[in-house]
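Help needed: design a sequence for this.
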C-alpha cells in the first residue's frame, strides 16, 4: 500500500466521514496502480468500513460525554434528577390529598384589587 493511503487510514476521524463509494474508488485506484492485489480489495474495503463504523461510534461517544459534561457545568438537571423530583412531588401531592388539603400559594391571601384611574376628558393633563 502507498504511504499516502496508510496515512489516510491512520487518521483519527478520517474514516468516519468517508463514504463507502469513496473508499471503493480509492481501493480500485490502488488495484489499477498495482499497489494492491485484486483479491485483497474487497477485504480491504470491508476492514476500512468496519474501522470507519468503530471510529464513528467512538466519536459519538466522545461528543455525548462532552455535551453531558457541559450541561452539568451549567447546571442543567439530568433526566434522572427530573424524574426523582417528579416522584417526590407525586408523593407529597398524595400525602396532601390524604390530609384533605389542596395546595395553595398563600392561605387566606388574595391579591389587592387594581385601582384604575378614571379616563381623561378632553385636554386634561394629569
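Sure. Designed sequence:
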Amino acid at each position: 500500500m502507498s504511504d499516502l493511503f496508510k496515512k489516510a487510514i491512520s487518521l483519527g476521524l478520517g474514516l468516519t466521514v468517508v463514504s463507502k463509494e469513496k473508499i471503493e474508488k480509492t481501493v480500485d485506484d490502488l488495484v489499477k496502480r498495482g499497489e494492491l492485489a485484486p483479491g485483497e480489495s474487497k477485504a480491504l474495503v470491508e476492514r476500512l468500513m468496519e474501522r470507519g463504523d468503530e471510529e464513528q461510534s467512538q466519536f459519538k461517544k466522545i461528543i455525548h460525554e462532552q455535551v453531558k459534561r457541559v450541561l452539568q457545568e451549567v447546571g442543567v438537571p439530568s433526566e434522572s434528577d427530573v424524574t426523582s423530583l417528579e416522584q417526590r412531588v407525586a408523593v407529597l401531592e398524595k400525602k396532601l390529598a390524604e390530609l384533605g388539603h389542596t395546595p395553595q400559594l398563600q392561605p387566606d391571601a388574595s391579591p389587592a384589587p387594581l385601582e384604575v384611574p378614571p379616563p381623561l376628558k378632553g385636554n386634561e393633563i394629569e
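The CA atoms of residues 60 and 66 lie 10 Å apart.
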